[in-house]
Amino acid sequence: MMAKCYLERQGRVVNKFVNNMPGKDWALSLLIRHKNSFGQRLSTNIKQVRSKISRETIEAYFANLSDTLKDVPPENIFNYDESNVSDDPGKKLGVYKRGVKYPEKYVIIPRRQLV
């Protein structure tokens, strides 16, 4: 889809593509030609709301966390990451630039699925 949008923005038509849309063979050969630049990785889902958090919100969170944990001994602190608790355990393969540490896919989750 990205290649089709690029071709349309450039005003180019490639006759061997149906409706200017490259097929799977073209995409696979692109990955093979540029194997040093791209790779396939499993992505994790991230909610749209979570992806729009501002820097100020994050700084306020850590300031509050520091105040809250000030008098708590380290042995009483546990790390729990709710991102691994999911009602959609499926991960999808995606194409990412090499070196991407955390490949993420932004998803919109219906309200009824929120915990």
Short description:
The protein is of the alpha+beta class and 115 residues long.
Number of domains: 2
Radius of gyration: 21 Å
Provide the residue-averaged pLDDT: 78
Order of helices and strands: HHEEHHEE
Distance between the termini: 33 Å
State the share of residues found in helices, binned by percent: 25-40%
Order of neighbouring strands in the sheet with most strands:
1-3
Biggest sheet overview: 2 strands, antiparallel
Sheet/helix structural class: alpha+beta
* Beta-strand percent range: 15-25%
Number of helices: 4
How would you characterize this protein structure?
- With 115 residues, the chain is of the alpha+beta class.
- The protein folds into 2 domains: 1-33, no CATH class; 39-113, no CATH class.
- 32% of the residues lie in helices and 16% in strands.
- It has 4 helices and 4 strands, in the order H-H-E-E-H-H-E-E.
- It has helices spanning 2-10, 24-33, 48-51, 55-68; strands at residues 38-42, 44-47, 93-97, 104-107.
- The protein has a two-stranded antiparallel sheet with strand order 1-3. A two-stranded parallel sheet has the order 2-4.
- The radius of gyration is 21 Å and the shape is elongated.
- The two termini are 33 Å apart.
- The mean pLDDT is 78.
Quick tags:
two-stranded antiparallel sheet; 115 residues; 4 helices; 2 domains; two-stranded parallel ribbon; elongated; single chain; 32% helix; alpha+beta
Task: Break the fold down into its secondary structure elements and pairings.
Layout: H1 2-10, H2 24-33, E1 38-42, E2 44-47, H3 48-51, H4 55-68, E3 93-97, E4 104-107
Parallel strand pairs: 2-4
Antiparallel strand pairs: 1-3
